[in-house]
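Support reply, case 0932

Customer input (verbatim):
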Amino acid sequence: MQNNISKALLRKKFATIESPVKPEWIKVKIQTDKINQIKKTLKSNKIVTVCEEAMCPNMSDCWAKSHATFMILGDICTRACSFCNISTGKPDHVDFTEPLRVANSVKKLNLSHVVITSVDRDDLKDGGAQHFSNTINEIKLKCPNTTIEILTPDFRNKKNSIELLSKCQIDVFNHNLETVKSLYKSVRPGADYKHSLSILSNIKRLNTKLFTKSGIMIGLGEKFSEIMQLMDDLRHSDVDFITIGQYLRPTKNHHPVIKYHSEDYFRKLYDEAMSRGFKIASSSPFTRSSFHAEDDFKKLKNIKFNA
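Our regenerated output:
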């Protein structure tokens, strides 16, 4: 109840704040035919994607290449992040047939690399970690050569969840910081900056073969110096890959865009990230966590192989 009240108050406040005028580059071309083909496959297996739920601007581009990010554990989140378009409330019971349905979709779409994410499930004892594990196992049974990337919630106050995931057959572990530390209360209420960093460092400690990844949005009012500190914190946690994209406001009830940044600014952030030792950095207005995930994973593998 408190979560919903806090969210309502924040959204009432945000609704009074106007964002700057959208620049021309925000316009996205839609490839309807390919999107409809992917939707048909996903619908037949009753699969939810974060692409649709989060209103990702890259959906057309990704789906044209048969790339999609599967969202497990339902489409209702127990958190109330002010940037996110996913609904908040009381989630449904866990669907134990979902892992098999996801695996069938991966096989049907003939995916060589798949990204699995989920809503926050604070109502579950393990935050949904076992369901992640079951989904990974089913994919590997049906598609043993498919590489797997998971984009997880923070499993805050959930014991042994990270330990369980560290033993799974995954290739990339992604957990997004989303924004700088000073903005957590307004952007990620219910989350903790230091805890999110600890997830990334712990998973790498438990499984040194994994690539780790984290992403942020900019344009929420953060300072350049704060982004630099965040980069340093991620490198201290031995994170391999950072993604940086422009925040786009889903509705007027969400956190306002404070600034639309230029491509030159994104290039500057890319240079700063690479100078700090990230193996890969993706920094552009439309960069998102799963955008070009397969191509980036191949680059990571080549870097490790040639190291």
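We compared this against your earlier run and they match. Two observations from our side: Residues 165 and 222 are 32 Å apart (CA to CA). The two ends are 51 Å apart (CA to CA). Please reopen the case if you see a mismatch on your end.
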